[in-house]
Amino acid sequence: MRIGIVGRPQVGKTTVFNTLAQSNAEIGGYTSRGQINLSTANVPDERLERLAEIVGSQKTTPATIDYVDVAGVTKSDVEQAELDSGMLAELRTVDALAHVVRLFADESVPHVDGSVDAERDIESVSLEFALADLQIVENRLDRLRKQFQNQKLPEQQNEIRLLEACQETLEKGEPLRTLDLSDNEEKLIRGYGFLTQKPLLLVCNISETQLEAVDEIRERFSKYGAEPQTAVIVLAAQLEMELSQLDAADAEIFMAEMGLRESALERFIQTSYKLLGLITFFTTNPTEARAWTLREGQTAVDAAGRIHTDFADAFIRSETLSWVDLVESGSYPEARSKGLLRAEGKTYQVQEGDVLLILANPN
């Protein structure tokens, strides 16, 4: 999973990035136009350690998330309808966008527009991304109409109709994620990497003094969370960054003192997985216990392909059980004797927390 972190300057984007990636990217001041921070973070999962203990695995390999932190979108970008092409290219490759909006007040970190107004910032960035998408749509439509003006090839006509629907949606000020697309239509425009089509996680960045008002803030922004493929999370990025830099014991004490039930990383990942429709499955052996990410509804063959492309081509079946059943049984032989280890074929839809043993032809 690859998530792009976006927003206006001076809203705490890079602080959020440092929190999630446990990184030390420079914060403060204005981010350079060409600056892009990249980092890969492990997905914490207590289940993985439990499974490794049961099987006696020598090491554990968690699932990972790639974070991309780009320069802030300025007012001049919106007025000129112009974003850095390198930044756009990077964002078009991500699976989802995390839009950081500022709710905290800090005189030492003045807002670029002179005042804190989260709704204004949301609309500014949304407009910039819509304009960037609209430019691609209009350019592609012009090429298609010129190229096929005397022909009526079904594939090109379908693409023209779909792009016209995209154009109409964007011109109405609506993101492309609001379109109800068929699987074929989604595949047809997937390669464009439209920014307003990507699932959106709205990250409300508050100060430590606003922690008691979290429920009110969440309610204030709930209208955005009601939109298709959109979710809202509230966090105090500066506080969470400090927390992420502590060892486990100190972090636990710190969280208790601040009344935090879980870290921002945990909440961010849980929300991101739900937003993107992702699940986790596991593979275990004496060498390694490993967590993998898959989309809801994908099959055992898809899971085999995540492990190795050859496994998908040579798939025979998978031996499957839930991680809870394996832990409670204490071993694979015991789980097998209880009838908990099942043989599943190509069409089996992998479930959250499944442990899979893929059997494939050696050829």
Topology diagram in text:
Elements: E1 2-6, H1 13-21, E2 36-42, H2 46-55, E3 59-61, E4 64-70, H3 75-80, H4 85-91, E5 96-102, H5 118-147, H6 154-171, H7 183-189, E6 200-205, H8 214-220, H9 222-225, E7 230-235, H10 237-244, H11 248-258, H12 264-276, E8 278-284, E9 288-295, H13 300-307, H14 309-313, E10 315-322, H15 323-329, H16 332-337, E11 342-344, E12 354-360
Parallel strand pairs: 1-4, 1-5, 3-9, 5-6, 6-7
Antiparallel strand pairs: 2-4, 8-9, 10-11, 10-12
Structural summary, described in words:
The protein folds into two domains: 2-275, 3-Layer(aba) Sandwich (Rossmann fold), CATH 3.40.50; 297-360, Beta-grasp domain (Ubiquitin-like (UB roll), Roll), CATH 3.10.20.30. The protein contains 16 helices and twelve strands. By secondary structure, it is of the alpha/beta class. Strands 2-4-1-5-6-7 form a six-stranded mixed β-sheet, with helices on both faces. A three-stranded mixed β-sheet has the order 3-9-8, with helices on both faces. It has a three-stranded antiparallel β-sheet with strand order 11-10-12.
How many β-strand stretches? 12
Q: Tell me the radius of gyration.
A: 23 Å
CATH T-level fold name of the largest domain: Rossmann fold
Helix percentage range = 40-55%
Number of helices: 16
User: Could you say how many structural domains there are in total?
Assistant: 2
CATH homologous superfamily descriptor of the largest domain: P-loop containing nucleotide triphosphate hydrolases
Principal-axes geometry comes out as: flat
Oligomer: single chain
Provide the CATH architecture of the largest domain: 3-Layer(aba) Sandwich
| Percent strand | 15-25%
Task: Extract low-pLDDT stretches.
Answer: none
What's the SSE pattern?
Answer: EHEHEEHHEHHHEHHEHHHEEHHEHHEE
If you average the pLDDT, what whole number results? 87
